[in-house]
Amino acid sequence: MSIPENLRYTKSHEWVRVEGESVVVGITNYAQDQLGEIVFVELPEVGDSVEAGTEMGTLESVKAVSEVLAPVSGEVLEGNERLEDEPDLVNQSPFNDGWLVRIKGSIEGSNTMDATAYAALLEEEKN
Amino acid sequence: MAESETPKRTSLYDEHVAAGGRMVHFAGYELPVQYTSLGEEHEAVRTRAGLFDVSHMGEVFVNGPGALDFVQNISCNDHSKLTVGRAQYTGLMYPEGTFVDDMLVHRMAEDEFLLVVNAANRSKDVEYLQGLAENFDGVTVSDRSDDWAQIAVQGPAAEEILQALTKTNLGEIKYYRFVWDEVAGSRTLIARTGYTGENGFELYLEPEKAPSLWRALLAEGKPKGLVPAGLGARDTLRFEAGMCLYGNEIDETTTPLEAGLGWIVKLAKGDFIGRDVLEAQTENGLERKLVGFEMVDRGIARHGYEISLGENSEELSGVVTSGTQSPTFGRALGMAYMPTDKSEIGTEFFVHIRAKTARARIVDLPFYSRKKKAV
Predict the structure, then answer these.
(1) N or C: which end of chain B has fewer CB within 10 A?
(2) What is the distance in angstroms between the Cα of B219 and the nearest Cα belonging to chain A?
(3) What distance in Å separates the CA atoms of residue A98 and residue A80, rounded to the nearest whole number?
């Protein structure tokens, strides 16, 4: 299962891509696969402050509701508006078109890990 | 059943794993919630056919010269005209007129009935029934759930697929009737029943024989679009068809009348457990009733979410019993109990979805009804 090398990851299966002063956040391929077909996405509003490790939105499949945790603290700069009409982009393209939000913040001091550590975490979860 | 108990495996466990089933713990069993995709499995059943392992369901036998009287006493439906080879849906009743469980009653012989009950309620039901049987002449109640596997084949192509594997003329088995015959070489009870809103059959046989029947059905059905389907699709299919699920729409606090199941309440048959309450509800009217609704605002209502008539939560009026994004309609739908005077089609109310309230509107049940073909 794909785990891009250039991203940071959380224990709760979000990914983080650093882009200058902000970070882009999504959920991993593993997370979307576990959730199944996503039919509804609820994101924080632009301008909201989110706090690392706390709920910032929800993803819903037909079967279940799943929280998305903010990987870093900061102000929400942008949400992926396409997801309102095409929530399944999160399934189709979790690392690209299915991104969730952009947050003004940094991974300094955050509880994120690199791709190797995340791959090891997935191995653990499978066993 | 305690959650901590080691879950049981049905005789089809290896088939599920080999087919990529995502196994979950459900009512004391390890069962597939889905194989490839809930949406695809749901659609297959609506348009072609799906295969379900429902071996977790409980099979309880009532035997003896007092069997009919006993079944009449515990059930709200009237089984006096239930001849051998027919089945009926009914409620197993508490004296309060509420549900111990919902179940299918099959008349196997003059003095033998097969009750098919929910897996999660099996021990409770058996204990309740055996307690009642002690004070009843000429009846024994035995739990034979572990002696039976059950496979459901459901969908527009189900009959054609099953017909290729048996000499029995399926066209002669009408809705809610059953026969015994060989299917793919195994002696099987073939019943035209189901929990999906589609035409189809439920097949009962010895657990050891189930894997070969499962494989034969898949081999025969695959070219016709049959896929194995998990618990996820089973739930969305029954939900769209407006069928009640124990623990959601019905439980020990709800009566069949409140749940819109007046058609299984036969007061005229004579006395039975809970009759007084149901008679009073019939005479005095209901305080609340089950309704179907669609979301007007964005959001998905789920089991357990609170609802209110006004936008603020100080006047809660009920709770969502089931709700999801309907795969067939692509809309968020739900069922809930509403005060009877607020249960008109078109009435709007609010569902409390996490920190927000979202508007919903009452619509007709069932959401989905297949174009009925005379069978």
Answers:
(1) C
(2) 27
(3) 8
Domain coordinates in residue numbering, chain B:
8-55+148-240, 58-135, 287-375
Interface mutation vs chain B, best among A43, A61, A62, most B CBs within 10 Å: A62
Residue range B58-135 in CATH 3.90.780.10: no
A42 vs B contacts (CB less than 8 Å):
299
Q: Which residues contact A15 (CB under 8 A, 6 or more apart)?
A: A4, A7, A8, A9, A25, A26, A27, A28, A94, A95
Question: CA-CA distance, B286 to B340, in Å (whole number)?
Answer: 6
Q: Which residues of B make CB contacts under 8 Å with A?
A: 33-34, 37-39, 42, 232, 235-236, 298-300, 302, 324-325, 327, 332, 354
CA dist., res. B53 & res. B314, Å (int): 44
Q: Which helix (H) or strand (E) holds B105?
A: strand B99-109
CATH number of A8-126: 2.40.50.100
Q: What is the ipTM of this complex?
A: 0.85
How far is residue B266's CA from residue B275's CA, in Å, rounded to a whole number?
9
Please indicate if any CB of chain B lies within 8 Å of the CB of A65.
yes
3-state secondary structure of B313: helix
Sheet holding A101-104, edge to edge: A8-9, A14-19, A22-27, A101-104, A74-79, A49-50
- Please list the pLDDT of chain B residue by residue as tens digits (375 residues): 444 568 999 999 999 999 999 999 999 999 999 999 999 999 999 999 999 999 999 999 999 999 999 999 999 999 999 999 999 999 999 999 999 999 999 999 999 999 999 999 999 999 999 999 999 999 999 999 999 999 999 999 999 999 999 999 999 999 999 999 999 999 999 999 999 999 999 999 999 999 999 999 999 999 999 999 999 999 999 999 999 999 999 999 999 999 999 999 999 999 999 999 999 999 999 999 999 999 999 999 999 999 999 887 677 788 999 999 999 999 999 999 999 999 999 999 999 998 899 999 999 999 999 875 444
Cα–Cα distance between B287 and B205 in angstroms, integer? Answer: 43
Domain ranges of chain A: 8-126
Q: CATH number of B287-375: 2.40.30.110, 2.60.40.10, 3.10.360.10, 3.10.20.600?
A: 2.40.30.110
Pairing of strands B8-9, B29-34: parallel
* Nearest CB neighbour to B38, from listed A40, A42, A63: A63
